[in-house]
Write a structure and sequence with these properties.
By secondary structure, the chain is α/β, with parallel strands linked by helices. The protein has helices at residues 8-15, 26-42, 55-66, 124-127, 138-148, 166-185, 200-213, 215-221, 223-233, 237-246, and strands at residues 44-47, 82-86, 93-97, 103-107, 112-114, 120-123. It is built from 10 helices and 6 strands, in the order ααβαβββββααααααα. The longest helix has 20 residues, at 166-185.
């Protein structure tokens, strides 16, 4: 599978189970297929923890990973080679030193991780949990981190395209992030994942999930953030969904 174009039946079977792709035109789906083929040729999608990793799972992960770069190109994922897939949540070990100089080891279960110039690590169960537009997509989330890291450490400020305003990006995201954190601290219910209040990098990743999974909700809640993300990804999922609903 990794040395040639994805077989038609395998591709169509995989994408039919990905609601996030609904609304894409035939031309867009074909471009996504080409990107997914190149992705699987260049990246090593490997199993860990005893996961039986089949071609359908690989294609589903590749299709979701390539959706954000549909109009950007695979060069945006250059500089690293591996996607590691566990059966479910995994427990990485992180070490940090607190303000008193005490070293702590943290072992918390997670569904995904992205390492700068290193692998993307995913929970297979969560990567395949694609049964609805609920704003949660671990593949989109972790690959948004990869895009964020293109110009250094994750900070919610990926490299912008020529013609985009850094000042407008910063203003839009800072205003929305402040509002989002205020609501999260107050315990207000929101359709957007409250994990976005962790830090600006997680906010960008969560907003990217919402952008592709539930674009109308993001556009209604934070229209300026929607405009900035649409300019960055060079896509407009809300309009795409409207066209799908009219057809």
């Amino acid at each position: 599978m990794r040395s040639a174009a994805l077989p038609d039946h395998a591709w169509r079977s995989a994408v039919s189970g990905l609601p996030i792709l609904r609304g894409l035109s035939e031309a867009e789906l074909e471009r996504l297929r080409e990107l997914a083929t190149l992705f699987l040729n260049e990246k090593q999608v490997v199993a860990a923890g005893g996961l039986p990793l089949d071609d359908d799972t690989r294609i589903k992960i590749a299709a979701q990973a390539c959706l954000p770069i549909l109009n950007l190109g695979l060069d945006y994922y250059a500089g690293w080679v591996s996607v590691i897939v566990y059966p479910g949540e995994f427990v990485p070990e992180h070490e940090f030193m607190d303000e008193a100089g005490v070293v702590h080891n943290v072992r918390d279960p997670v569904t995904g991780e992205s390492w700068e110039k290193g692998p993307v690590i995913l929970s297979g169960a969560d990567a395949l949990r694609c049964d609805g537009h609920d704003g949660t997509n671990v593949v989109i989330h972790e690959f948004a981190h990869k895009l964020d890291m293109l110009n250094g450490a994750m900070n919610g400020f990926p490299p912008l395209h020529q013609g985009m305003s850094s000042e407008q990006w910063a203003q839009s995201f800072t205003t929305a992030y402040t509002d989002f954190c205020t609501k999260a601290e107050a315990g207000e219910t929101t359709v957007l994942d409250p994990y976005g209040a962790e830090n600006p990098a997680e906010f960008f990743a969560v907003m990217s999930e919402a952008f592709f999974e539930m674009p109308h909700a993001l556009r209604q809640e934070y229209p300026e953030v929607y405009r900035q993300i649409a300019a960055f990804y060079r896509q407009d999922p809300a309009s795409r969904r409207n066209a799908e609903e009219r057809s």
